[in-house]
Structures are given as structure tokens and as C-alpha cells.
């Protein structure tokens, strides 16, 4: 195995405390774009044999598009299955769409895509617009934490609206969802993530069970009853799908909103431009700039070659979106935050392969609605202190963002 030329492990949470380590990634893209990192001491929190770090836009695309060679089956989050993980734990991971390969992935994605058609997403617009105005309108203080006051709630409301979760159950569902995603940083949440996951799983399975016996005109019924090529989701499969939405659609969108606000307020000309012309291109620039998911991984199914580098079978290949989104061969002035950037072929929602973010259009709608509500109701918002980052090499997160609202 070639000796690594890089000095950093780009999954090391400590190097993200001041944001994406741009200088290091630029060096890797230039000198060592497919680079062996001998040991994981990053977000996974345990040692492992190592992985390949892929940092250029073109190579991340190539990996994303080739699920035959680069499998999602051994867990796409940056840790490989932990050695002491039980068979049940592994089966649970593999029951999630993100960790499936074709043909299982193709079949299940065809079913769940039913809930994410442009029509289905557009039907949520009015309710989410009202929610966005309520969230912004209900901030009663002069100053506060933008993340907890504003960025947190709409992503959860959007998933609840999508699934038709009744108002009286939303408190529980939101609590389970938030505590599940706090595992990377114990300070972030008090509750036990595993217990919360079980709580949410049980709730979702009960929902599916009810729809199987008493079908309604809603998305849950569509997913558990309607047959697509003879297939529908079982009660268990539906439960895991909801679990995944709570992870995939919650913190990601929250961070895209927080990064967008932080970048706009740090670049006052861009905030003025947003307020006066509301460019539709802004949302994708927030996602590129923040790259809320820093990395996902694949495992090679056979010996292969990527960008001239031989990679043996069974090794992990990590795609760093946080690097690819600043690739100077693709983006003009990548370190300039430009809400009118077009085209903007960022990989914040993944490469354009089979696993491309299913919720991308829902996320775009939410982000668009919340920023329009902020521009309408609190145009004088300003920064009141530095952003406090989440300590994670996997999620580019902002934990707290002190602001003055008026
Ligand atoms: C997949 C990012 C919002 C649901 C992905 C992937 C990325 C991503 C990078 C690709 C995973 C891979 O290639 O292995 C984001 C970002 C978001 C966001 C940055 C917000 C700005 C959402 C929302 C939902 C959602 C709102 C749903 C409510 C999913 C699902 C997948 C996925 C279900 C798995 C698709 C599959 O495996 O076929 N997302 N996501 N995401 N995302 Fe998102």
C-alpha cells in the first residue's frame, strides 16, 4: 500500500471546528486525489484498517455513479460495521435504503419515490409556507440562537407533513428524531439515541399497521398498500424508511439553513441581494457552501482503478462532498459565496447516481420558504457572535449561531 502523502485524516472531527479544512482539501485534490488514509480515528471513534479518501468532483461522481463496483451495502456512514456489532444491528443497517444495492435498492426506491414526486412535494407548499411564517413570526426576543429558534423546526415539520403525523404526536416524533442524530456529540442531546430510534421505529410501524387495516388517502397508505410492479413496503420496511427520513432529512436541512444564514450575514452584499431579488439559485449555493453532509462511503466489490489508483476489493472509499464542492476545476471562484451562481453542479445532495438525495426537492422547498419568511419578517437580522460548529467529520454542522433579530 502506498504511503499517504496527506497529513490529515479528513474524518477527524477536530479539524472541522472552524469549518471545512479548505487548505488541506485543496492540497489533496492537487497532489493526492485518491489517497489511502491508514487508520480511522475520526467520527467513527474507533480504529480500523483505513480507507481511500476521494476529494475531486469528477472522482466523487465516478464513484457515486457506479454502484456495481462501489457498493453501499456495508454502511454508507463513515464507520464500517463495528467489529462487535450484533447480526441484528447489521441487519437493521442493511434494511435502510441508503445501505442497499441494486436490485433491492432499485425496487425499494421505486416505491418510496412515490412520496417525493414534484406533485407530492408541491402539495406541501402551502402548509410549509404557513409553518415557515409561524416559526419566524413567533421569535419574540431581540436576540437569540438562530439554530434553535429558527433552523430546527421546519425540517421536522416537513417530514411530519409528508407522512401526515397528527399534531398531537409531533412532540414525541421531534424529540426522538433530534436525540437520534446527537450521537456524534454527546453534549448535543440528552436522551439515549438507541432508545429514541426504537421509539420512532415502533411509532412508524404502528402507523403502517393501522393503514394496512384502515387505508386512508395519504402517503403512508400509498407506501404500504399500493403495489408498484407487484411490490409495496412491509410494515417493517416502512418503519426503517421513517427512521432514515428522520436522520437524512432533519439535521441536513437544519444545517443547510444555518450555513445559509451564516454565509449571508457574513457577506452583507449577498444578504442585501437576496432581500431585493430573491434569486432561485441561492438555495443551491447554501448547500454547496455548507455541504451539510461532508462524506459518505462505499465499499469496493472487486479490484478496481480510480483516477489511475488501483484499489483492491473490499476496501472503503470515502467521497468528500465538502471537498468536491470547492473543486476549482469545476467552480469558478469556489471560495466566493455567490447566491447567483449558475450553473452550480454541487454534490451536496450526492453524486448523480442511484442514491442521489431523494429529499432534495423537499429540502430546496423548505430552505426557499424559510429564507423568504426571514427576508419578509426580519430583514435586519445580524450576527451577534461566532458560529459554534458541531464536532464531527461526517456532518458539517452549526450547533449555535448567535444573532440579533432586529
Ligand atoms: C440521500 C444530502 C435533505 C432523504 C442523500 C445523499 C446525500 C444527501 C449526500 C446521498 C447518499 C449516498 O449517495 O449514499 C442531503 C442534504 C439535505 C438532504 C445536504 C439538505 C440540505 C433530505 C431530506 C430528505 C432526504 C429533506 C427527506 C425528508 C434522503 C434519502 C436518501 C438521501 C431517503 C437516500 C436515497 C437513496 O439511498 O436512494 N441525501 N439530504 N434528504 N436523502 Fe438527503
From TrEMBL:
* Single GO BP term: antibiotic biosynthetic process
Q: GO terms for molecular function, please?
A: cholest-4-en-3-one 26-monooxygenase activity; heme binding; iron ion binding; steroid hydroxylase activity
Taxonomically, which superkingdom?
Bacteria
UniProt keyword list: Heme, Iron, Metal-binding, Monooxygenase, Oxidoreductase
Protein name, UniProt field: Cholest-4-en-3-one 26-monooxygenase
Q: Which residues form a coiled coil?
A: none
* Family from the record: Belongs to the cytochrome P450 family.
Amino acid at each position: 500500500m502506498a504511503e499517504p502523502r496527506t497529513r490529515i485524516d479528513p474524518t477527524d472531527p477536530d479539524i472541522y471546528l472552524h469549518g471545512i479544512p479548505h487548505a488541506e482539501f485543496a492540497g489533496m485534490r492537487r497532489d493526492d486525489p485518491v489517497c489511502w488514509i491508514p487508520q480511522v480515528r475520526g467520527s467513527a471513534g474507533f480504529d480500523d484498517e483505513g480507507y481511500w479518501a476521494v476529494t475531486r468532483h469528477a472522482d466523487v461522481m465516478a464513484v457515486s455513479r457506479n454502484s456495481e463496483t462501489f457498493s453501499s451495502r456495508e454502511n454508507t456512514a463513515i464507520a464500517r460495521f463495528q467489529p462487535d456489532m450484533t447480526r441484528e444491528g447489521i441487519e437493521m443497517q442493511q434494511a435502510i435504503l441508503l445501505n442497499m444495492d441494486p436490485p433491492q435498492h432499485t425496487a425499494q426506491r421505486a416505491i418510496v419515490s412515490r412520496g417525493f414526486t414534484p406533485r407530492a412535494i408541491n402539495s406541501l407548499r402551502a402548509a410549509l409556507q404557513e409553518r415557515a411564517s409561524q416559526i419566524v413570526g413567533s421569535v419574540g426576543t431581540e436576540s437569540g440562537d438562530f439554530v434553535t429558534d429558527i433552523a430546527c423546526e421546519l425540517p421536522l415539520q416537513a417530514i411530519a407533513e409528508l407522512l401526515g403525523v397528527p399534531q398531537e404526536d409531533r412532540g414525541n416524533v421531534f424529540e426522538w428524531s433530534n436525540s437520534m442524530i446527537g450521537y456524534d456529540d454527546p453534549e448535543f442531546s440528552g436522551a439515549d439515541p438507541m432508545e429514541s430510534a426504537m421509539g420512532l421505529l415502533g411509532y412508524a410501524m404502528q402507523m403502517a399497521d393501522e393503514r394496512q387495516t384502515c387505508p386512508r388517502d395519504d402517503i403512508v397508505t400509498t407506501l404500504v398498500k399500493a403495489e408498484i410492479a407487484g411490490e409495496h413496503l412491509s410494515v417493517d420496511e416502512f418503519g426503517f424508511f421513517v427512521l432514515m427520513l428522520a436522520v437524512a432529512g432533519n439535521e441536513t436541512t437544519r444545517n443547510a439553513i444555518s450555513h445559509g444564514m451564516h454565509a449571508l450575514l457574513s457577506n452583507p452584499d449577498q444578504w442585501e441581494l437576496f432581500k431585493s431579488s430573491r434569486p432561485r439559485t441561492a438555495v443551491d449555493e447554501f448547500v454547496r457552501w455548507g455541504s451539510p453532509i461532508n462524506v459518505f462511503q462505499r465499499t469496493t466489490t472487486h479490484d478496481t482503478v480510480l483516477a489511475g489508483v488501483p484499489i483492491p476489493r473490499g476496501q472503503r472509499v470515502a467521497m468528500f462532498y465538502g471537498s468536491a464542492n470547492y473543486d476549482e476545476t469545476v467552480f469558478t471562484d469556489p471560495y466566493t459565496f455567490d447566491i447567483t451562481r449558475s450553473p452550480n453542479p454541487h454534490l451536496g445532495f450526492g453524486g448523480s447516481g442511484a442514491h442521489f438525495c431523494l429529499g432534495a426537492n423537499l429540502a430546496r422547498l423548505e430552505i426557499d420558504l424559510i429564507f423568504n419568511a426571514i427576508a419578509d419578517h426580519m430583514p435586519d437580522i445580524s450576527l451577534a457572535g461566532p458560529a459554534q460548529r458541531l464536532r464531527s467529520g461526517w456532518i458539517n454542522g452549526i450547533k449555535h449561531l448567535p444573532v440579533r433579530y432586529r
